[in-house]
Amino acid sequence: MPPLYNAETQLAKLTEAAIRRYSMIEEGDRILVAVSGGKDSTSMAYDLAAKRRWWPVRYELRAIHVATDFCSCCKKSALFDLLGSWDIEPVSIDVPVIARLKPGFSMNCFWCSMQRRTELLAYAMKEGFTKIALGHHLDDIVETLLMNMLHKRQISTMLPVFRYAKYPVSVIRPLALCEERQVIAFAEAKGFRSAACTCPYGVDSKRREVRRKIADLTGGSSRLKRNLFDSMSNVKTEYLPGPGLAE
Length: 247
Fold this sequence. Notes:
By secondary structure, the protein is an alpha/beta fold. 44% of the residues lie in helices and 13% in strands. It has a six-stranded mixed β-sheet, with helices on both faces.
C-alpha cells in the first residue's frame, strides 16, 4: 500500500479509538482546535475535519492560533490556507507572554503554557465553544507522567479528556493513543512537518531529558511505551504505600 494510505489510516484509526474510548465528542459540540503550526496540531485539525464528514454525531470546528511575543516561526498564512481548504475557520489571538512576566522572573514553559491556556479558555467561553482540542500525543502523556513522578513527587499526567469544574468547557486530546512517530509519519506524508514550529525555550527542557530516559527504558519499543500508558488505567492501590512517607 502507498505510504500515505498507511500513515493516514493508522492515525485515523487511533484517533477514532481515542474519541470513542474516552467519549470526547458529543452531539452538537463546538470544538475549538488549538493550532500552533506544528505537526501535531496540524495533523489533529486535518483528522477532525475529515471525521466530521461521517462521524455519527454532528460537531463544529474552528481553529485558533495563539501568537506570542517571543516566537514567530509559524507560517500563519500557509497554515490558515490549509485550514480553510479543510473548511475550518481560522482565527488568531495575540498573547504577550514575556510582557506579562513580573520583574525578577524568567521565561519558562509553565508560564507560557498557563498564559496561553488562560486565553484559550477565555476565548472558548466568550464564543460558546464546548471543547478545546489540543494536539498532545501518547509520548507527551507518558513523558508528563514520568516528569511529575520525578520532579513533583506525584502520579499524574495530561488526561485524554479533562472537564473543568468551574468552566463549561472541556479539554480533549484526540491524539492520545498516537505515538509521536506515527504523527511524524503522517505529517511527512501529507507535507505538514516542514511547517513545524520549534520553541526557543524548550531546547534543553526537562521534557527532553525525560524523553531520553523513556527511550532508554523502552529501547524504542512501542509495546513497552504503550504499557506505560496503559498502567495508568490499571492502578493497584493496595500495593501502593499511600501518604505519610514523603519528607
